[in-house]
Design a protein that fits this description.
Mean pLDDT: 74
Helix content: 40-55%
Number of domains: 2
Distance between the termini: 35 Å
Radius of gyration: 19 Å
Shape: elongated
Number of helices: 9
Order of helices and strands: HHHHEHHEHEHHEE
Structural class: mainly alpha
Number of strands: 5
């Protein structure tokens, strides 16, 4: 898919898959969609290498990550398209699905990278706008208060809050690697500290 982006800039006629040696016979619709994405990427200051380059730059990996996430509504259903680049990413993701291509899951973008590339910043839908009920039970916060007590350093709660500090949803597998069980994640969700945004993905509530 990286070479497909590079090809969309007009440097190469054939569209190629990101996997070495794989060839994709894409329609003109797919080509045109990738052309719009490449244009938006350059307009937002992202760097795309030429099709002959053996290297893949961080901006190209970020585009792959977002494409894979947009192909999975369980992760991205509540994301707003905050700018034309994100709208093009979403369009490309669904055009690829229609063409029979689903990208593998990639690691979420690092918060430090997103801070330097504001075009990738996630803006969340208001749950009321898309018909999702908001939990109103909060056994940790005081009645009528939206504030959560600070987690003591070194506790499981503090560890979970630290892992979920960025805008990216965090996989349950990542929490497990840090000794945080699914049951504990559920308790944090009931307490209003975390929010489950898809199957096996969580983010911090603000």
């Amino acid at each position: 898919m990286v070479l497909a982006l590079r090809s969309a800039l007009g440097r190469e006629a054939n569209l190629c898959a990101f996997e070495p040696g794989a060839q994709l016979a894409f329609s003109e619709t797919v080509r045109a969609t990738f052309a719009r994405l490449a244009t938006e990427a350059l307009d937002h200051g992202l760097v795309l290498f030429g099709p002959g380059s053996p290297f893949v730059i961080e901006d190209e990996l970020a585009i792959l990550s977002r494409l894979a996430q947009f192909q999975r509504p369980a992760v991205s259903m509540r994301w707003k398209c905050a700018n034309p680049l994100q709208a093009s990413l979403k369009e490309c993701a669904f055009v690829l699905i229609a063409a029979g291509w689903r990208l593998p899951v990639r690691p979420p973008l690092k918060p430090a990278y997103v801070m330097g590339r504001d075009c990738f910043r996630i803006v969340w839908e208001d749950p009321r706008e898309i018909g999702l009920a908001q939990p109103n039970n909060d056994p940790v916060a005081k009645p009528g208060s939206q504030e959560q007590p600070e987690a003591a350093p070194g506790t499981l709660k503090a560890r979970a809050v630290e892992l979920a500090r960025g805008d990216e949803p965090v996989a349950a597998a990542m929490f497990r690697q840090h000794g945080i069980s699914a049951q504990f994640l559920q308790r944090l969700c009931l307490a209003g500290i975390l929010e489950k945004v898809g199957r096996g993905y969580y983010r911090r509530r603000y």
